[in-house]
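Note to self: keep these together.
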Amino acid sequence: VKTNITATSTPRTTNTHKLKTTPFNSTLKSLCKWGNLDKALRLIESSKPTPIEEEEEEESISLFLHACISRRSLEHGRKLHLHLLRSQNRVLENPTLKTKLITLYSVCGRVNEARRVFQIDDEKPPEEPVWVAMAIGYSRNGFSHEA
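Structure:
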């Protein structure tokens, strides 16, 4: 049984429910909106956030992953994921971003890759949205028993 349910959330937002308006985020948002994921990825890869900017970085990555999911751009999502792994970025511990990565991989039919994202951290069990995204990913790809 196939399902059309998608486990994504909008990018984490401030109290005003909008992505923080900075030149970086404005540029990234425009690039994602117009489907220029190559330039958006280069922008993310070239940024070096300070600890104060970590929340902004998470919002930016969430926005980019949302664009990848919408466009089913496995290539761009994989490149971002590899960039985050290589840079040992703690952003991958964020449940919203894990959920988006799992969703991207499962929407693109890559259940094994979704599963690897799901089980990256054995010390800390995944939060509920991460479990739900993995269950939906299994279900979407015909693995009802695993779901």
